[in-house]
Amino acid sequence: MKPRVQAIFERLLAFETVSSESNMALIEYVRDVLLGKGIESLIVKDESGKKANLFASTGPRELPGVLLSGHTDVVPAVGQAWTVPAFQATFRDGRVYGRGSCDMKGFIALAIDAMLDAADHSLNRPLQLALSHDEEIGCVGVRRLLDVLHLAPVRPFLCVIGEPTNMQFVLGHKGKGSYHTYCRGLEAHSSLAPRSVNAIHVACDFIAALRRSQQQLQEQGAQDADYDVPYSTVHVGQIVGGKALNIVPNLCTLDFEVRNLPADDLDQFLEHLREQAEVIVREAKKLSSVADIEIQTLNVYPGLDTHPSVEAVRFLKDFAAPGTGTAKVSFGTEGGLFKQRLDVPVVVCGPGSIEQAHKPDEFIEVSQMEAGERFLAQVLGSLKL
Ligand SMILES: [Zn+2]
């Protein structure tokens, strides 16, 4: 690993940028490092002012460039059995340990180093860097940055999201919608149960509808054999309801998610689901007008489906190590949002393995960092005049 990459990487790992905390110290550090080479950063803060995205560009501004993108936040380390300090780089046995080492401060260190390199050369197309916050809690932060980049007169011709893929080219992942549902009924003494509306029973009917929709997606929805589960999935993850056995409950809440293949329309799915909820409610209202099912959207991010034959993918392929394949993955990224808002081809490619992400003693192999170094050096080489 280049000494400069290692130095940046160590600094990045020391910032405790758990999603719930501020990432400003890290963002200001990156801004200052880039400014050292004369690269200006655009800082886009969230409404609290405690978190920010960063965008920087070096090279000719009027031309579309290559955008390297990563998220600065990490998942918490508390409650996990770490044997090394979580927020400090530990170099051991050809690995770098630390929270965020593979997901994804290793890539960010490489991307910053590539920006610094780029500043020393005349480029025929710009190299750009986008850093986001709050990715781990549903790709929340990057949306503000995309609102700004969306309005820019020139957009990148390619976006590389450096999530850990062992430097393979990932061209697709499912989208995801998560939802909170209130099922309402009428409270009563349990001896009078048939005359009131049991909110748990309403929830059960709704869950049955969800399971029917899963069946439908499986049998009639889009299919993509590149995924372990080749169709869109529906799942209820949490349910809460009832106070005591002798009370007919008036409220039951449940959380469900849909992970959709990009070819299955999430809005359409939800519309269909609401129609089924209406049928359940209409029946329940015969006993009480308070019966209701209310579905609240918690978070939605789109899937990614980049065609392997687009020019941008072929451009990148020239720089990949021999044997680099294309794949689709089960985890989500900000890639779908970049594609949706900027209409730019997106490739997810970064060092390290998702297997190590979010775990205690998270690490990245130094050899992966070096593979990333070689890759970005080649990409940058192609942008030089
Ligand atoms: Zn990540």
TrEMBL record:
It is an enzyme of class 3 (hydrolase). InterPro entries: AcOrn-deacetyl, ArgE/DapE_CS, Bact_exopeptidase_dim_dom, Peptidase_M20, Peptidase_M20_dimer, Peptidase_M20A. Pfam families: M20_dimer (PF07687), Peptidase_M20 (PF01546). CDD domains: M20_ArgE (cd03894). Its EC number is 3.5.1.16. Residues 172-279 form the Peptidase M20 dimerisation domain. Keywords: Amino-acid biosynthesis, Arginine biosynthesis, Cobalt, Cytoplasm, Hydrolase, Metal-binding, Zinc. GO terms for biological process: L-arginine biosynthetic process. This is Acetylornithine deacetylase. The lineage of its organism: Bacteria, Pseudomonadati, Pseudomonadota, Gammaproteobacteria, Pseudomonadales.
